[in-house]
Design goal:
CATH superfamily of the largest domain: Histidine kinase-like ATPase, C-terminal domain
Number of domains: 3
Radius of gyration: 32 Å
Mean pLDDT: 81
CATH topology of the largest domain: Heat Shock Protein 90
Structural class: alpha+beta
Oligomer: single chain
Strand content: 15-25%
Low-confidence stretches: 1-30, 396-406, 532-536
Number of helices: 19
CATH class of the largest domain: Alpha Beta
Distance between the termini: 81 Å
Strand order of the largest sheet: 7-6-5-8-4-3-9-10
Length: about 525
């Protein structure tokens, strides 16, 4: 962990002892009367340096959570508690809006609840179960405080109900590490929805999440709704493996609407490519790698492609996806091992690490960043080099049709002096047929017009558009007259080769303009084959 995080964790572990003792954290310090010796044998005295509750608990608010990472941290606790259904609930009406996270996990006893509300309730050096998504024992508190000033947890275990609240305004006033324990729950929203076992986390006094908007309930509600909507995709992505691969699968709900997982590797699409799982044994566990190549965007629907790429698109979502206990912590980054390029944007590499390797990877409190151990970095560098070739081949195979003479391309791809030039082919049937029907004095001028088209390809604009979002770059639509003119010229060439109707249809179907308009194009081709003027 970094120095700031380390200080907060250490300080919280010290301060947590005051929850039981009721210490005041006063401004005066005390010096012990005993004499001690340091590690070098020198005589020392000791002083109480317990952190002030009001100061430190406010510092916990600024670890760096966003709304989506804060919600994900709360969901980690629910999953660790065995929940199979988690609901995110919002009540944004009125002057005291609230957000709830309700699960059907195993719940907590009253004693376990108090311990869970303690900052630094778990030592990060202690062993954890393989399925434990926690780390520092800070997530519930620090994630919640980053968004609100009042955190309430209501839990039921074996039918017995318990509840507790951290109120930061109370801590600021008393400077004491004290929580409020509830005996009545009628004022707690959604508490009546708890099953025999389960936990409800409630955020209120949403000063951070509300954007600091005061005196405008509608404006504050709109701001919170935008933040929750932005967090939705993050949660669908971070927990997609629990939602897809578990039996029974994890269900995430947002205000009564079930969320569908987002698999960044496109495993549900037939055109995806997946390599075998590769392992790297290390001192505290095994790191597993698996390489994926997404299908070409023309192989899936536009809606599916856009959902897979997310708001930033596929160019920015390529790279490594690092999971800790199957929970995503790093999303779409080459981690300094490669550059994001258009030809590698189909590359995805899944990296799985166990929670026994947290210290080696320097997992932070938010579980949103990590650092690569040197041995892992070298293995990942080799994977990048190999997988990027697969992604490039996926694009280049489709691009090969552009230069395949079987399909009579209208544009020639010419490589000259290290440059790639695209030039209209004057010998293409549709161009040569039209030129032959021109008067002799216009044929040279028509050839010059074709040359002008080749010399004025908007290379800079195309490069910018492809670098941003290649799947949005499309050819103009073709009507029946355009299809007829192209088909008429190409059918004549194929008939001169002795091709039958079925052979002509097979030969012309891969031509991009025909393929994307095949219902109309095939009817036009059949009609042309039967027209007498084709044979003249």
């Amino acid at each position: 962990m970094n120095n700031a995080t380390g200080f907060v964790v250490y300080a919280c572990m010290l301060a947590s002892e005051l929850v039981e003792s009721g210490g005041a954290g006063a401004s005066m310090y005390s010096v012990s009367h005993g004499i001690d010796r340091d590690r070098h044998g020198n005589r020392t005295k000791t002083a109480d340096a317990t952190p002030h509750a009001a100061s430190l608990i406010e510092s916990l608010r600024d670890i760096g959570y966003s709304c989506e990472t804060a919600l994900a941290d709360i969901l980690d606790n629910s999953i660790t508690a065995g929940a199979r259904r988690i609901e995110i609930l919002t009540d944004l009406s009125g002057s005291d809006p609230a957000i709830g996270i309700l699960d059907n996990g195993r719940g907590m006893t009253a004693g376990e609840l108090v311990e869970a509300m303690r900052p630094g309730s778990r030592n990060p050096l202690h062993d954890r179960d393989a399925g434990d998504l926690g780390r520092f024992g800070l997530g519930l508190k620090s994630a919640s405080f980053s968004q609100c000033r009042r955190l309430t947890v209501v839990t039921r275990h074996d039918g017995f109900l318990a509840g507790a609240t951290w109120d930061l305004d109370v801590v600021a006033r008393t400077n004491r590490w004290q929580i409020e324990l509830h005996e009545e729950f009628s004022g707690q929203p959604w508490s009546d929805r708890l099953d025999r076992d389960g936990t409800l986390v409630i955020w209120r006094d949403l000063d951070r999440l509300g954007g600091g908007i005061e005196g405008n309930d509608a404006g504050r509600a709109a701001h919170i709704n935008r933040a929750i909507a932005h967090a939705e995709r993050h949660l669908r992505l971070v927990f997609h493996r629990f939602m897809e691969d578990d039996s029974p699968p994890l269900e995430l709900w947002l205000n009564g609407r079930k969320l569908e997982p987002v698999d960044p590797f496109g495993r549900n699409f037939a055109g995806h490519q997946a390599d075998r799982v590769d392992g790297l044994d290390m001192a505290h566990g095994t790191v597993e790698f698996q390489c994926f190549t997404l299908p070409h965007h023309k192989s899936v629907s536009r809606a599916e492609w856009e959902d897979l790429g997310g708001p930033e698109g596929h160019l920015r979502s390529q790279g490594f996806y690092v999971y800790r206990g199957r929970r995503l912590i790093i999303t779409g980054s080459w981690l300094g091992l490669a550059r994001q390029t258009e030809l590698t944007k189909l590359c995805r590499i899944r990296v799985d690490i166990p929670n026994t390797m947290d210290s080696e990877w320097k997992i932070d409190v938010k579980k949103a960043s990590a650092q690569l151990p040197p041995k892992v970095r070298e293995r990942m560098r080799n994977l990048v080099e190999r997988l990027s070739l697969t992604s490039k081949r996926t694009y280049q195979r489709r691009g090969q049709k552009l230069v395949d003479q079987e399909y009579m391309p209208l544009w020639h791809r010419i490589q000259r002096d290290g440059a790639i030039i695209y030039r209209p082919d004057p010998s293409h049937p549709v161009l040569s047929d039209f030129s032959a029907r021109l008067p002799a004095e216009l044929q040279n001028e028509f050839a010059n017009v074709i040359g002008v088209l080749g010399s004025t390809v908007p290379v800079a604009s195309l490069h910018a558009d492809f670098a941003g979002s290649a799947e949005e770059v499309q050819a103009d639509d073709a009507d029946e007259q355009i299809l007829r003119q192209l088909a008429k010229a190409m059918v004549r060439v194929l008939q001169n080769q002795g091709r039958s109707l079925d052979e002509i249809l097979d030969a012309l179907h891969p031509v991009e303009l025909f393929r994307i308009n095949w219902d109309m194009a095939s009817a036009v081709i059949r009609q042309i084959v039967n027209e007498e003027d084709v044979y003249e």
